[in-house]
Amino acid sequence: MIKGKKVVAVITARVGSKGLPNKNIKILLGKPLIYYTIKAALGSKFIDRVIVSTDGKKIAKIAKRYGAEIPFLRPAYLATDTAHTPPVVEHAINYLEKNEGYNVDIVVTLQPTNPLRKTRHIDLGIKKFSNANTDSLVGIKEAFPPWWLFKLKKHKVVPFIEFKRGINAFNLERQQLPKVYQANGALYVTKRDYLKRAKSLINPKSCTYLLMDEESSLDINTPLDFKIIEYILKTRKS
User: Fold this and answer.
1) What is the pLDDT of residues 199-215, one digit of tens each?
2) Is the residue at 2 inside a domain?
């Protein structure tokens, strides 16, 4: 617990998934994928409640079996391919406030597609967020240098962005380029009042971070992603 603060985790798990059908409950080493995130959240010493926002009765039943709360089924307009995460999380927190009179101070947003993210990552993130006095925290990992990316122009590739005038980035080693980072999708921590006001999980002007390793950052979007994570877990188990 964080003294004087109510911390709620929202796990976002809609039914639809085109890249990997039913991925949120696809069996991974004998357990549905969502189990790993629920387990990590319930193990946190800072989180008071773990809510799963889903539009699927089967997902809801499975999530409840593993200890998460399902106070509602997500409305259809928040479960489309184009529905963004912030309104989904806002809907969940607003539901608790309006229907239960449960006032939230800190919101932790977790995707079930990051099964290698552990309780320790969540707690490290919440603790760092609490000490940083920012509106938000995001889980990040080191990213591929953007100066090595291309865009297509007719029948040619052209650099996506220029590194420095007169310097060909493709003649440089990675160590010679500035390190850059990207959100890994594994963890977002947000002040409740900022989420309500801005309808966003991240305030780019007031955001700290938790740097996570490549393995813990792995996110499942495709069948290949699933196989890679399955292999890692099997290797750990053996």
Assistant:
1) 999 999 999 999 999 99
2) no
Q: What angle do CA 207, 190, 6 make, to 5 degrees?
A: 140
Residues 98 and 189 in one domain: yes
Whether residue 71 contacts residue 89, with contact meaning beta carbons closer than 8 Å, is answered with no
Tally of residues, the chain: 238
Helices (H), 29-84: 33-42, 57-65
Entry pTM: 0.94
Contact 119, 44 (CB under 8 A): yes
Q: Looking at residues 34-58, what average pLDDT do you find? A: 97
CA angle 83, 14, 1 (to 5 degrees): 100
Q: How many domains does the chain have?
A: 2
Q: What is residue 2's predicted lDDT score, i.e. its pLDDT?
A: 81
Q: What is the pLDDT of residue 110?
A: 98
How far CA 116 is from CA of 65, 124, 156, 185, in Å, comes to 21, 15, 39, 12
Closest CA to 64 of 32, 93, 21: 32
- Under the phi-then-psi rule, with left for phi > 0, alpha for psi from -120 to 50, and beta for the rest, what region is 11? beta
Give mean pLDDT, residues 152-163: 93
Range(s) of the domain holding residue 118: 7-142+181-237
Q: Residue 107 and residue 8: Cα distance in Å, rounded?
A: 5
